[in-house]
Amino acid sequence: MGEVPRHTRLDAGPAGATALDALVAALPRPALLGVAGAPGAGTSTFAAALAAAYGGVVVPLDGFHLADVELDRRGLRERKGAPETFDVDGYAALLARVRQRRQLVMAPTFQRDLEQPLAGALPVPPGAPLVVTEGNYLLLDAPGWREARALLDAVWHVRVDDALRVRRLVARHEEFGKAPAAARAWVERVDAPNAALVEAASGRADLVLDLTDWAPPAPR
């Protein structure tokens, strides 16, 4: 393992915005930045805010979820969201294309209402100054994930207060169709082990950001 990552707490309002400006300014240009974090930590919200504030594009790892039909074939439907339920080699291949910046790359996204990936939905132009890719497992020290990590200029690991994170997860599962009891059971049975795995890998991050008090800034 390399150096211990820096830890920063981002506040809401002007102070947090100023701190974030400095962090982004320290990245190379153009930059391919990874944002990792446990389920419910806010990686998607944070990545979207970065892209909006700094003229970037978001490429979500969730676009590389295996479709339910394939999860059923592999007997993994009840593990959906775990590392083995992603096409990590496809993800690394797309990052390699994005990093070359030779042409427009069409990336997949994830349809939350369908709970399925959607191919060719996100244009990533070669001139984008910042491409943010976000997902839980960007720091895993495992085949496929290591190759993907090597393509990124930096990876930031985000976290929030754990009680807040769990409340968000339960609410998300309820929003997309699970009954309250089923939502809580899924968080305990599936999301909790995944979160522990993600946090165990956080020492490989270039920066650890506490977003408990952070809020997305108003559009500039």
From TrEMBL:
<keyword id="KW-0808">Transferase</keyword>
<keyword id="KW-0418">Kinase</keyword>
<dbReference type="GO" id="GO:0016301">
    <property type="term" value="F:kinase activity"/>
</dbReference>
<protein>
    <submittedName>
        <fullName>Pantothenate kinase</fullName>
    </submittedName>
</protein>
<dbReference type="InterPro" id="IPR027417">
    <property type="entry name" value="P-loop_NTPase"/>
</dbReference>
